[in-house]
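A reminder before we start the practical. When you read a complex entry, don't treat the lines as separate problems. The point of joint prediction is that each chain is placed relative to the others, so the output describes one connected object in space. Small molecules and nucleic acid strands, if listed, are placed in the same frame. In the example below there are two entries. Take a minute to note the order of the lines before looking further.
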Amino acid sequence: MKTFFVHLLIALISSYVYFKYGDPIFPYNAIWAVVVWSAIMVVLWLTTPLYHKSYFRKLPKAIAFVAYFLKELVVANLKVAYDILTPHYRLQPTVVALPLSVTTDFEITVLAGIITLTPGTLSIDVSSDKKILYVHSLYLKHNDAEQLKQSLKQGFERRLMELTA
Amino acid sequence: MLENVNFLLIREIISSVFIIIGVMFMLIATIGLLRFPDFYIRMSAITKGATLGLGLILTGMGIYFNEPDMFLKVALIISFTFITSPVAAHVIGRTAVRNKIPFWPKTNLDEFKGYLRKDHMTRNHQKEEKEQKP
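Here is the predicted structure of the whole assembly.
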């Protein structure tokens, strides 16, 4: 985690300086900025086996996690948008108690934030012993709360645990 | 070949597409805020729509201005919005539950009843303790 932030800062600052004060061989635009930034990140990532072995394994998983999250964000937003624009509600709101496997405060915060940002679900409260997260969900297929819990656990929690373990 | 391409026009088109999609998401979220039946569903409609819409609008702006400064600022604003807005939504939802804002009658509260009962019992219990102390 710490390594990632250090690398992120180095890549941001160096690509910024390169385009602002250097003599870029590419014309500046958003695509080239992202390409140069990711190239620096990849170079830094290739050096990590020397001093931080687990980071070398985890970065691809982190990228997959972010991609999965963005996909969920857009798909579920479209779902809610469809429901808003058509006259009949297909809503079946439910509050489920999601048993948490993650333990630390940081993981619970990230998980609750991600669940809130995914449309259709809103995390309401954490029980006082940090074992249960109460999630308000808009859609429940076939009245099956277990299925929803499993999809949340398999989708987000498992990936998050792989990253922080 | 490359000299004939009008890069400004391309940039403008791309950024307009981003901004229009973002504004559409925000508009739909606002309609949802007016239409949906209860507080919690409205909360979940408005938070995501606004966050995604803001992200898209800012990306479009960064592409349009085409400067390193602007892109850095846009990236910072987007990341901070994505960190803070779910926290705000979470706190507002929790406060609503504590203040006993009613759920939509069709809501399935089976797994939540235990929490509601326990929470309200502990709060009453604390109140009684406070009343007994003086």
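Discuss with your neighbour: The helical segments of chain A are 2-20, 30-47, 53-85, 105-117, 145-164. What might explain this?
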